[in-house]
Each structure stands twice: as C-alpha cells, then as structure tokens.
Fold this protein.
Amino acid sequence: MAAAARARRQARGKRPPSSVRYTVDASVFVNAFNPHEEGHAESLRLLTAIQQHADPIVAPALLIPEIASAVARASGDTVGALDYALATAGLAHLTLVTLTPAIARLAAELATTDRLRGADAVYLAVARRYGTTLVSRDEEQRTRGSAVAICQTPEEALGHLD
C-alpha cells in the first residue's frame, strides 16, 4: 500500500506544470504562417504546443489586423491573409483584449519610458496587465520590455513546454 501511494505521488510530480499564460506578438503568428522565414518551424511548433496544452493566450485585439496586414503585404494574397487572421481570432484558447483607456495609458507610459514602438508597447501593456509571458520575434521589444514582463523568443518558450 505504501509503495502504491509513493508511486502515485511520484507520478503527480511528473505532471506538466500548471498552465502558463502567454501574450503572443503578431510576429510569431506571421512567422508560423510563412515556411520560408527563419524560425518558422519553431514558431509553428510553439503555437501548436500552446493549443495542445490549452494554455491561454491573452493578446490585444490589434493582433488580428497586424496579422492580416503583414501576411497580405508579404504574400500579396489578401483573401488568404484575411482568412488566416480570422482563423487566428477563432482559436479556442485566445482571448482578445480591447484597447481600453487604462491599457492605452499603460502602453503610452511603456512606449515613452522604454522607447518602444506603439504596437509593441500595446502587447507589452497587455502582458504586464494580465501577468503573461510575452513571446515575440522582435528582439528590441523583448529586450526593452524585459524590465516590465517576462519576454521570450518562441524557442525559449518551447523550452518551458517540452
């Protein structure tokens, strides 16, 4: 009986850690879409793993037009770009956050204090407000934002999921 209880305790210790919450920047979704970009496989693998683990993604609603714009500009396929952006919006574990005045103020503070581009500051403000890990391909955003939130590349985030 004691051995069985010990085995159950050891098995419980091997369970995956509790769900991590992410804010995933459009750069990762766009990278996952384009098989010709460096890092594509890792971005795609990360997004797949997040969905399989049912880890929540909390992102600004800005994510959807950013994805549509970047994919359409790179591919010239406006219909495919919109389809991909809308499919992203429908992901089961994705919560899109409206740009409220409070988040806009926080983003403005971060943009000025950390010299971030406006959209980058919005993602960082969402990560800060919701206590999520920001995952981005944008090195400047990760470096400047690391004082405010946990910031990782898709490869770093994958290391925590494996």
